[in-house]
Amino acid sequence: MKPLSLFAAQSAQFSLFRTPGPKRIIATVGLVNQLGNGMFITTSALFFTRALGLPVEKVAVGLTISGTIGLAFGILIGSLADRYGPQRTYLVTLVAQAGSMTLFLKATSFTLFVIISTFASITQSGSLAARGPLIRSHAGGNSTEFRSVLRSTGNAAIMMGSLVGGIAIQVNQPVAYEAVVILNAISFLIAAGLLRRLPAIHARHVNRGPREARFPAIRDVRYLGMSVGMGILAIQLCVLPFALPLWIIGYTDAPGYLASAAVFLNTLLCVIFQVTASRRVGSSRSAVRTCWIAAFTALTACACFGFSARAGTFTAVALITLGVLFVTWAEMWISASGFELSFSLAPARRQGQYTGLFGTVQGMFLAFAPTLLSLLCINIGLLGWLCLGVIFLFGAAVVSTFVAPGFVDGDQR
Fold this sequence. Notes:
By secondary structure, the chain is mostly helical.
């Protein structure tokens, strides 16, 4: 990698916060939001079980129910963002997320927990759907690079937030976990306050013709097919936090701490190199090509992980580390391709609805990912890892099939 290219990428991240304007406001909103999320994600399981006193099994069931319901609302709230304006809709969802965090403090029964976590899941899905058209409205000529900068700075904020969450875990008292929940709620309110400083965006006219469907995104075969392909590729997001720790502990001679080191290395590399990785993606054609490169890179990572079980300690550590590097680059390339395709294939006036569909499809595959990874990688072993790599190639083929022929830019639709 050219040093000048990396320097330019890092300069783009820092200049975003130095230059006044809508981009800096959007980036700052995301930074504050992700800082709170990092704190909460790190401690949420312990808050639910130790502070609220809920059994682990019920927490798992409740989160599954609420997450499934929440996914279905992404398209609906995205449509509201198209109709009433993304800024207004995003603001409402941020305030609602602050409310859901506060309500969690009173979720002392399973029924209340399911109701409140469902509300939190709906507001989270809606927030992501509304954020899409807001970013597109202010991104300028290169939305992929702008979204990559946002992802990079967001990862950095999550890392900082996780450190704060780690302090609460070290204290290990209910009041510490409750404090984190309150801080997360405050972060949503601060983000909402910052968002109000953004110049108002008037909602685009989305009046339907007599024969136009209410939710055209669902009927858009090309966009839906692309979303399915990107959803398959997104399964790799669960490899490091879910499959790799179980694999390292149960099937290799590598030390257990390598699992947490892998997640840290992955996050750090995404912070540093995400913008650089996105610069190979500037059109639908380059996005498809990058998906293929990412799929083969992920296949190589799967092979490294699989063969680590047949090696000694030193070789296993080397193979796993190499696999982490490969899967991290695959993740960054897949993210950049998703940024490009989720915008360029969507009509600008319905970006919220299309973003909601994209997020819903990805969420469905991510919900299914732990089961698939457990079946293939943990139960079968090396052959399962290789099959997972082939699945990634299939995902790239799906994206290529639906995007390549007769591509029409979203702004022209």
